[in-house]
């Protein structure tokens, strides 16, 4: 057990030191430590190590899970502010039945709209509805390229919301 802890500690230190010891492509001096960048590099390194260990295991198949995304673009109005072109997205993992997964994502989206209307906004108008068999980040980029005034309010994880509802 101690060797595992030592190995992980050494790996963390090595990654942290390598991040601060060299200059980047666009920098002439070494970069300072950045926790977000550290987490990304740690995940990439861990994925490479896991891939190396799993290369000999032919029975293990790569996990590929597709996402579906439902989106509504809204005009929101409260007593103090008016917000137009606000996108709310709901993302759900596709387990094979796209229509039921999209329906679940839409249901979570409608619940979120009810909460927004009840707590924050006096008027809410649906400008457009979109759904796609892709992740919400890709759909948001696509919508943003079509409409530069679009503001993404939130990307809701429908899987997590459904899991919380099932626990109640």
Described by strand count, sense and barrel closure, the largest sheet is: 4 strands, mixed
Residue-averaged pLDDT: 81
What is the helical fraction, as a range of percent?
A: 40-55%
Which parts are unreliable, with pLDDT below 50 for 5 consecutive residues or more?
A: 58-64
Specify the structural class: alpha+beta
The count of strands amounts to 4
Could you give the distance between the termini? 38 Å
Give the strand order of the largest sheet, numbering strands 1, 2, ... along the chain: 3-1-2-4
Percent strand equals 25-35%
What is the chain-wise order of helices and strands? Answer: HHEEHEHEH
SS element count, helices: 5
Task: Tally the structural domains.
Answer: 2
The geometry reads as: elongated
What Rg do the Cα atoms give? 22 Å
Features:
5 helices, 4-stranded mixed β-sheet, 4 strands, 168 residues, alpha+beta
Task: Please outline what is shown here.
The protein is built from five helices and four strands. With 168 residues, the protein is of the alpha+beta class. Strand 1 and strand 2 form a beta hairpin.
Blueprint of the fold:
Blueprint: H1 2-21, H2 35-54, E1 66-77, E2 82-94, H3 98-119, E3 123-132, H4 136-146, E4 151-157, H5 158-167
Parallel strand pairs: 2-4
Antiparallel strand pairs: 1-2, 1-3
Helix pairs in contact: 3-5
